[in-house]
Write a structure and sequence with these properties.
The structure holds 2 protein chains of 2 kinds. Chain A is α/β, with parallel strands linked by helices. Helix content of chain A is about 30%, strand content about 20%. Classes of the chains: A alpha/beta, B mainly alpha.
Chain lengths: ~300, ~300
Amino acid sequence: MAPVRSTPATPSPAPRTPVAAAPAADLPVEGARRTAPATVTISTSAQPSAEPTAAPRLSVEGLNAYFGTSCAVRDVTVDFPDRFVTAIIGPSGCGKSTLLRCLNRMHETLPLAKVDGRVMLDGQDIYGRAVNVTAVRQHVGMVFQRPTPFPTMSIRDNVAAALLTSTPRPSRARTDEIVERALRRTALWDEVKDRLRDSAVGLSGGQQQRLCIARALAIEPEVLLLDEPTASLDPISTQKVEELVYELRRDMTVVIVTHNMQQAARVSDRTAFMLAGELVEVAPTTTLFTTPRDPRTEAYITGRFG
Amino acid sequence: MTTPSTPPMRWSGAYPTATREGKLRRRHAINAVMAGLVGVAAVLATLPLVVVLLYLLNRGLSSLQWHFFTNMPKPVGELGGGMANAIIGTLMLVGVASVIGLPVGIGAGLYLAEHRGSRLANTTRFLADVLNGLPSIVMGIFAWQFLVRPFGHFSAWAGGVALAAMMIPQVARTTEEIVRTVPVSLREAALALGYARWRTSLTVVLRTATAGVVTGALVAIARIAGETAPLLFTAFGNQFWSTSLNQPIAALPLQIYTYALSPYDDWHAQAWAGALVLIALILIISLVARVATRGRFATAGD
């Protein structure tokens, strides 16, 4: 058992009681919150932790996303509360990945892509004029559907690669510390500690994906975006990643896009359902899956289409 | 192999067994003939190299003694002449060309790959292709016009720049092709870590493509190392020892050219030896760089 990581009480996460209105009220480790990095344009105004109704970490207002002239996300307004896992579900092509990619300005890296609307991170619009894109992405980390370890780098260097952009650059010893902590958080340390200098490509798919999560965690983002992180993994690896997501909610805001409704039910506190670019409904996960308000949501979750 | 006792397969289809066997035999025969033809073509493709190498070894090896590498050219009839100056000259010319040509070529290739749709990229790509097909003698004349005439004398600089100009389009195009094979997902992963575009290009994309880029660079170096025409009016050649970049400098291809045109048998022998050294040099450059880039991790386009 890894010494640092505290495992969840139940090994397989089950849907918990919905926490609807007062987000940050009953979360376990308020004290363990790390201090927000002070350097960057998007900085948190580190509010005291025990606030009953914390402002949402990330909130989307009237967001439209386009590819050329076709509109992939239509007028979406949604909040992602602090230290909650929000799942986005919906049929293929409904715009859930695009919405996710708008949250750290990755959408605009694609050809012909365009965004309008606002995405507020701690009260500041990440699409604002003076905002530095790279700073946004350091605060809002992202993990993709397929594992993307850098093939030329060792396991250690893959995790350390995230620190390349931090100023001042941490020392070697400090880097090793950060790498170890990130790998422990993703429960990968015991599996790779004897081969940190080996190529990351030699790891299994599940290990590679956890390595990518470790890499994203190394720079301590406030928000982590997961784009179908288990779509290319086997069930065991999937379970490990899900356990990890379950753990991460204690420290950060997580948004996970998934095809798999069971997964959404297992790992998320809140679920958003999207259809044809529109946000149909967002609600506490158990509510959405038991008593959906919208007939389209009901049709989807009962398997009548999609 | 088909044993006659084997019963026909279940799905024996439309043909009676005898016809099927006949068809099968015919297909096997055609397959054998085609495989043979392709094999012959493969052998034919490598044949020139083998013949050239064997012939060079046969003609050049006898005059290839130690003094060939250490001595200067000697007048006709005097024994013990060498090409020390030409060997150094070629190394220097290739060095100058690489120092100028590789960074520009690789940088241009990276730009072409990363901004593939932009107007500048499309124009550059087209011009690079045209430049690639430009006869080397034309490049030599231009270098003479712009780098020799204004200064009033031939120089190693002019030769190096002429060779660099030949390298750049080739290196740019091969770099572009290799960099394009790097998966977009890696680029996105780097951008999502908060890397700026330039950092993504250099630390992730180019690094992933290193092996291919190096191979492309080597092919370009090997090609210009043997170029003669661009040096005729630029580096010019030199019968004396010179390592100054501002002076005319000797080069193996030029020396081979001069000696081969001469009416003297011992100069002919020297030309053969020079050709052998030139080929060996190219081979060594390739091998050294191959070994040097055979890093710990596989780096070919994923």
